[in-house]
Amino acid sequence: MRTLITGGCGFIGSRLAAALLADPSASVRLVDDLSVGSPDANADLPIAEIARDDFASRSNGDFGRAEFIVGDVLDADFMAEVVEGVDAIVHLAAESGVPQSIERPVAATRVNVMGTLNCLEAARAAGIRRFVFASSSAAVGNSEMPVHERRPTSPLSPYGASKLAGEGYCAAYFHAYDIDTVALRFGNVYGPGSGHKTSVVAKFIRQATAGETLEIYGDGSQTRDFIYVDDLVEAIRLATRVEGVGGEVFQIAAGSETTIGELADNLVSVLNGCGHGVQVRYTEPRRGDAQRNYSDTSKAREMLGWQPRVDLPEGLRRTAEWFGVGEEA
Fold first, then answer.
1. Which member of 159, 173, 228, 294 is catalytic?
2. Is 166 exposed, middle or buried (0-12, 13-18, 19+ CB in 10 A)?
3. CATH 1.10.760.10, domain 2-189+229-255+295-309, yes or no
4. Which residues pair with 215 in a beta bridge?
């Protein structure tokens, strides 16, 4: 299979590229505007960077084993070019994060909605039948727990609204153009490769290793569903291949409710075992954050044949080790 990954130099994109290339028969084409991601994320992979002009001069359908092209999903002409010869698109590129979207709602909408629409249009024009969209549990907002795919949606932030809009366009392109779109609502993703992320696990580890106090918004009772990156990558891989899932939405998370306070305790246990004295303080709650969030992932188990394998303590240990914390143990 020849897979195009937007956001291919990011945290999840680079892990997905490595997983796909473990299959000798697979090929990947990565697209990234490098506003957040870096080619260094794929430094261990045999990926060749190709200039856009050089790519445009190739014969349609030429596809290297592993290649990277700098470009923006907001450039519709660029996306129409790079999908040539592709079997499946995994659309990860996004303006991510709830607080960033509250500060810059128009930017989040432009990238997450128009960028997704450009990718879907490119897929339609090129006759690509499989399109996997990175959505988020933020599309649901506050809900009865656990969250599942039949729950009503009411986003609490522009980020959540933009992801819900992306799900809507995926559904429309499935029904109107017979593209097998699959929307995956990611839980809180963490793991190796997340050094630049502002998500809570990465932020806590950076604060702890810098000798800073861990900062928790609110009283720490808010809950999240933390999913280890390699488990998430396996769900994406299956979503590009499993038949009969076109037009579907899946919750992809560990299926476990963890308070932020419990997360901090788990991480303190890992880091203190490596010689770090870690302190915690509580600050004002953050606008746009749901109070509770965890997922029922039974639909993904039944239809994708997927289930998470790495529990939180083991995942935190592996993540801390990647950050270099374990070297002091």
1. 159
2. buried
3. no
4. 281
